[in-house]
Amino acid sequence: MEAYTNTAQHMKQKLPLKNSYLISFTALDPELRGKTSTILAFEKLSSFMSHIFNNNEKSKVEAEIRLYQRDIDITKEMLYTSDESGNQVKCTIDKYWSKVFNLKDDFTNDYKYPTLAKLVKACLSCFHGPLAESAFNLMDTLVTDYRTSLKIDSLDAVQTIKYDLMTSKETSCEKYGSKNPMTDPIHKDLLLNMNRSWKTYQEDLKTCISDESPIKVSEKPSTLA
């Protein structure tokens, strides 16, 4: 018991539990909608991330925060979804906010929360789990002493493919209907994807990069070492 107590005391001293920025993230909790503390937390988040808004959006986000607090279109049913067995389970936070973002005004048919969506997406883009660590573990297995010339673009492509396979819970053979990769012919879709991979990757990059971003997309594909 003493070991647990000492560990807890150590964590209280080392963890940023009083960090006002992290505390403000409680605004994203759907269970806290309607509370005064949620408005204050959202206002802090918008001030911390003011660089993502232009002058017009700064006033709009304040109005959308207050609308979100009392919006009757946001029901308790939005907190739940059905699992594979058809049972009602709580939504993950990203799915809940996706439902909120898709709400439209009855009169104008415009989305209700375009600016608040920008703020929430910026918050949810912050790493809050073990994914960052797992990405480094994956890099350790790929970037060895014999593959030190592996470019970042190529590494990013490998990670994207691996995460896609992990999400679909399939192996690369299962994805293309191959039972024996040593004897079965290569699937034509795989060949097409390989030929189009660089073009598709560059198009995806361009859609992710805003007009204000200084990031420059390289013109030539990287090669695997």
From TrEMBL:
This is HAT C-terminal dimerisation domain-containing protein. The gene is AVEN_147570_1.
